[in-house]
Amino acid sequence: NDPMRAFATYGLGLIGTHTTDTNMRRRIVRDLIACLEDEGSDNSDLKVAAMTAMGLVPLEVVEDDMVCFCGTCKVADPDTSLGSQVTYLLRYFTSDGEYDATVRAHTATTLGRLIEAQPEGMSARLKEVVTQFLVDSLGKYAHQPDDVRRSAVLALGLIGDADRDKADVWIRNALTRSVRRGDPIEKRFALISLARSGARKGTGEDPFSGTASTRKELLTALSKGKKEIRPWAALATGILGYHLRDEGGQMDPGVDNALRIALGRTKKPDEVGALALAVGLRGDREAAENLISQLEKAKTEDARSYASLGLGLTGDASAVEPLQDALGGASEEPLLASRSGLALGLLGDTEVVQALLDTLEDTEDESTRKSIVQALGYIGDERSIDALVAIMSDAHEDKEVRAQAVVALGYAADRAALNWRSKIASGVNYLAQSDMLTSSDGSGILDIE
User: Fold this and answer.
1) According to the model, what pLDDT value does residue 448 have?
2) Most exposed among 151, 309, 319, 366, judged by the fewest C-beta atoms under 10 Å?
3) What is the pLDDT of residue 330?
């Protein structure tokens, strides 16, 4: 059936991400292109899956590869090299009368991911070509569908960096225009992409030359933007700081201070959540007091849960006790308990494991058991394994609790730093609708834990 075919297609992309077998990668790309070119199928879910998976399988660079980057030429063998793969995708992206707009939107993401991967030997010219097509699609007279524009904005965030290279200056300028003039969703996505590109270390004597202007743009949106934009500007500022720390860039203490002040003053739940994540992503331990206050006083469970997650991200040990208290209220506020468990896992707190196991043994409340099981998976302590296996194997246990035990065992045993879905989720336009990507009933690939 169609959903199974779509999931198999995503699976091919994930295999292609990990294999170093050149022939295997070429075969995967060939099979994905066959899905895209199947004239007997109008299943857009399958084609979106194939296009998304393609971005996870960049082919090798072949010297003297005869390819064309005009955006209109067909290529006979798009599964033979990175150049031919990109040539094929550029035509797919530009042929707005021939291909489905939703699939074209995901083509932008795929182009961004292939350039982001930077296979050995990839030329600066290839990045410039892809950048030019994406930037042109955002032009005033391009008349592209909203989903295509939004995906192009996200793709630019995948490939841009903070140096003075021509392509990167184009990217920052285009994203700044989208922040100021785009539709409400485009503005939000552009803030995130601007943060990612402005924090990524470039090359040359000044690899962070664009960071200061990026920071200024984000702070302007945070202080002067419309109320629906400010949370996204806050989150983008956190992302900027997180990646700058990771890349060895210069952090601005004034930004941390501004975010702390805003977090202390705001009472709006969406701003509380965004600011909590922002200070957490920036690793600002001085914000712990403000976060603990919001954990106790914020108006909604959602806002308090993000305050707990922010505490975990800061790495401040003073957060352990209030997080343990929040975790104890699982039956009343399961979302808060779940994210508090994740926060404790981020802090490396294993002292709470035995208390959780004792509570798990004593309570029959299903929401409490589910939250505790989830927390145990996040914390990842070996003492919880036997209990999780027992729950998973118990035919009399609640079905959702058993399922959560399976997920928790996966989290506890997974050595990867990022969730397996991150390769598909990163930079994707989740609003370019495909049920097998994400759906309201939780059956899409991004919805599966």
Assistant:
1) 87
2) 366
3) 65
